[in-house]
Write a structure and sequence with these properties.
Shape: globular
Helix content: 40-55%
Number of helices: 14
Structural class: alpha/beta
Number of strands: 8
Order of helices and strands: HHHHEEEHHEHHEHEEHHHEHH
Radius of gyration: 21 Å
Distance between the termini: 46 Å
Largest sheet: 8 strands, mixed
């Protein structure tokens, strides 16, 4: 079990409860009153803690290694899922996975970035960092969905597009730019959900959508807080200050008009209860798709265009 630094006081209370229960069982002493008091303290502290997280603490939850990934969600929210492989140019980037899905009474194209939870899985999925081949695979599936009039849902959890030499040599910037252009022209509803990390153009390459939703503790940003701190203060350790300044949380981005809605997480984060998180996400997907299906192709394109054109307004 991975314990984040700010969670340690809560864990100490929970350990005290376990210790009291053990003593009560072994000695026969009646410690129910004391146990109930500590349990109430733990519940109160937990609710208070997770309802008042700072941006850098949400960042830690968003990156939690046990957070549900794309394949976890496909198993829990999809009644059917058929993966479609390859970019039709000879490769199949495993950092982006997509396919035909049925969720409730909706048939759609479900595409997302995939992270691993073990070293072996992370090597297979390149730590959730797509290469150009992955964006080209996503583009193929976008066009497939557009042809057959299927709504598109993307689940995004990536620290960014892969920054290696091989990605640059095979056209990383061009692949992302083409996706931005082509997603803007799609004639079907597009819903993007930031499920964990939504960093830089690597996330935006799957997120030109009619509705952009965010999980409660996810973050969405043009640059990682560590990268920002390294540039501004020459010190990555100042990432908490950068996370605050960048306005990366769901609440901030909804207020700024970047995101359109928040999907609640279980108390403690999505990793604490996969089933509850998946139920919340399924409800949000069905609601968003149903709302957008009432728009014509032209209305969907115009709404998407207008949404992104107004971003960046500010008062000085």
């Amino acid at each position: 079990m991975v314990v984040l630094e700010f969670e340690k006081p809560l864990i100490e209370i929970q350990e005290k409860i376990k210790e009291l229960k053990k003593i009560s069982m072994e000695s026969g002493m009646d410690l129910n009153k004391e146990i109930e008091t500590f349990e109430q303290q733990a519940n109160d502290y937990k609710k208070e803690l997770y309802s008042n997280l700072k941006p850098f603490q949400k960042l830690q939850i968003a990156r939690h290694q046990e957070r549900p990934n794309f394949l976890n969600y496909t198993k829990l929210i999809c009644d059917e899922f058929i993966e479609l492989h390859g970019d039709r140019e000879g490769t199949d980037d495993r950092a982006i996975i997509g396919g035909l899905a049925k969720i409730g009474d909706k048939r759609l194209m479900l595409i997302g970035t995939q992270k691993g939870k073990t070293t072996k899985e992370n090597l297979e999925y390149n730590f959730g960092m797509p290469q150009p081949q992955g964006y080209r695979k996503a583009l193929r599936l976008f066009r497939y969905a557009n042809k057959f009039k299927l709504p598109i849902v993307t689940l995004i959890d990536t620290p960014g597009a892969y920054p290696g030499i091989s990605a640059e040599e095979t056209g990383q910037g061009v692949a992302i730019a083409v996706n931005l252009r082509e997603m803007a022209k799609l004639e079907v509803p597009v819903v993007a959900i930031i499920t964990g990390e939504g960093c830089s153009g690597g996330a935006l390459g799957l997120a030109v959508a009619n509705k952009v939703l965010m999980l409660e503790h996810a973050y969405y940003t043009v640059i990682s807080p560590e990268g920002c701190a390294s540039i501004l203060w020459r010190d990555a350790a100042k990432y908490p200050d950068a996370a605050e300044a960048l306005k990366i949380t769901a609440d901030d981005l909804i207020e700024l008009g970047i995101a359109d809605g928040l999907i609640p997480e279980p108390v403690g984060g999505a990793h604490t209860c996969y089933s509850e998180m998946s139920d919340n996400m399924k409800e949000a997907i069905l609601s968003a798709v149903s709302e957008l299906e009432g728009l014509s192709s032209c209305e969907l394109q115009n709404q998407r265009y207008d949404k992104f054109r107004v971003m960046g307004k500010f008062l000085e």
